[in-house]
Amino acid sequence: MPDATVTSETNSATIRPEEAAHFGKLARDWWDPKGSSAMLHKLNPVRLGFIRDAIDMHWAGDVESIKPLAGKTALDVGCGAGLLCEPLARLGGEVTGVDAAPENTQVAALHAEGAGLDIRYVPGELGTLGLGQFDLVTCMEVIEHVSDKAAFLAALTARLASGGLLIMSTPNRTLKSRALLVEGAEALGAVPKGTHHWEDFVTPEELTDLLEATGLEVTQMKGIAFSPVKSLHVSDDMSLNYILTARRR
After folding, report:
1. I need a labelling partner for 59 at 20 to 30 A (CA). Which of 65, 116, 138, 191 fits?
2. Which ranges of the chain does DSSP label H, i.e. alpha helix?
């Protein structure tokens, strides 16, 4: 595993305390596919398909391998209760999960132990933790909850090793996302009320500019769309949600 020593790197706070508290209250329900995180359970397989393809493309590995991350380190930022960390570990990675809510990392650690997976979970602000660098850095549905997005992305980039791969996903700021992800989803109980604040959503153009300012190059970007026939799926339509890969220029 990467060096477990925790040191102070910066005092910049990027996660709003009320956001961490909101998700911390959902911790014990996170692994229930019919609970408050049901939408994430539906979204996770779609994201994992994109992630697996991105790993194969970036490292030109064996597409038939069941452990394409063998020998590589992976960091999931905003890991929640470990919904993505556990599949990354099963892909062979040495995985670390970071979350601002300690309730989430506690539940994540217990679930990983029960599943027989060796995953390190660390609570706290990414920029204040001396975690070293990682081959793969993932950050799913997090940037929209961050107050200082530039500082947060700088911290993400600092965690990325030379030749590494960053994968992010987030809702787009469109009328469609406001209607479906905020007003509709909360009214129907698909996500807990207060989960999303539409004005904090980031457009693909904005996120690209922010990543480029940290020295990264966006290498692929796809939408995550919904239809009654396909349900959630990777698409060219980025009006609802999108996922991207980036690397150092």
Report:
1. 116
2. 17-24, 38-59, 85-90, 102-114, 149-158, 175-177, 185-188, 204-213
Please state, as a whole number, how many other Cβ atoms lie within 10 Å of the Cβ of residue 128.
16
Does residue 145 or residue 209 have the better pLDDT? Answer: 209
- According to the model, what pLDDT value does residue 25 have? 65
* Residues tagged in the binding site annotation for S-adenosyl-L-methionine: 47, 78, 99, 140
Phi, psi of 137, deg, nearest 5: -120, 125
0.70 exceeded by pTM: yes
pLDDT at 189: 63
User: What domains can you pick out in the chain, each with its CATH number?
Assistant: 17-248 (3.40.50.150)
Contact 218, 212 (CB under 8 A): yes
Residues belonging to the binding site are: 47, 78, 99, 140
